Amino acid sequence: MTDDPDVADLVRSTANHGSTVKYVHDRVGLNSRLDAVQATVLRAKLRRLDVWNAARRAAADRYDELLADVAGVRTPVRRAGNTDVWHLYVVQVEARDRVLADLGAAGIGAAIHYPTPIHLTGAYGHLGYREGAFPVAEAAARRILSLPMHPHLTSGQQDVVVDALRRSVAGTGGA
User: Fold this and answer.
1) 129: phi then psi, degrees, rounded to nearest 5
2) Which of the listed residues 9, 70, 113, 145 has the most CB atoms within 10 Å of its CB?
3) pTM for this predicted structure
4) Do the strands 144-147 and 89-92 form a parallel or antiparallel pair, or are they unpaired?
5) pLDDT score recorded for residue 24
6) Quick one: pLDDT at residue 132?
7) Does pLDDT of 174 surpass 60?
8) Contacts of 76 (CB under 8 A, 6+ apart)
9) Nearest CA to 174 among 101, 100, 102, 94?
10) Phi, psi of 135 (to 5 degrees)
11) Alpha helices in the chain (DSSP H)
12) 117-125: long-range contacts, CB 8 A cutoff, minimum separation 24
């Protein structure tokens, strides 16, 4: 507790990944937002975690199959020996913002997660890296798009997502 608003802002932002605005990180921070209520909810959810992770893996496998022949869509790379849990299913596309708008117009909740490469955030500005220092990361940040992913995603919903994505990257619109 504090009566100093500057200290309160510092502590809140540090506990929220060093951020007061989503995806804008002014300082190095932590993820320290777990309170007792959330801990209780998460403890109950842990019993379902293995089933939910298996469902996400199945959904990711299906996205891989559905998107295998879609020109202009780069799917995630899997590494041998990893067991991915697919919190996000992130593809890369050119004209990402237009594709996102097309998907949104079709009622599909795609999103952009982590739009700024870490070396370009304020939190790491003191390291002196500028745009162009990590061109692969910067190019990826301009192309990444998270498709709907959750353990209850149905095959029918994935068909709708992929059909709209296919139309959008072909330039015929997503709606």
Assistant:
1) -75, 140
2) 145
3) 0.81
4) antiparallel
5) 79
6) 97
7) no
8) 60, 89, 90, 91
9) 102
10) -60, -30
11) 5-15, 36-45, 49-67, 96-105, 135-143, 155-169
12) 117/141, 118/25, 121/24, 121/25, 121/26, 122/24, 122/25, 122/26, 122/27, 123/18, 123/25, 123/26, 123/27, 123/28, 123/29, 124/28
pLDDT score at 136: 96
**SS3 (DSSP) at 35:** coil
For residue 5, give the 3-state DSSP assignment: helix
- Give the residue from 8, 13, 9, 42 showing the smallest Cα distance to 30: 13
CATH architecture of the domain covering 49-169: Alpha-Beta Complex (3.90)
Amino acid in the structure at residue 161: V
In this structure, what token pair is assigned to residue 106?
A: 């079709």
Both structure tokens of 53: 């992770």
Q: What contacts 43, CB < 8 A, 6 or more positions away? A: none
Structure tokens at 34: 């777990």
For 34, half-sphere exposure in the C-beta direction (CA atoms, 13 angstrom radius) is 8
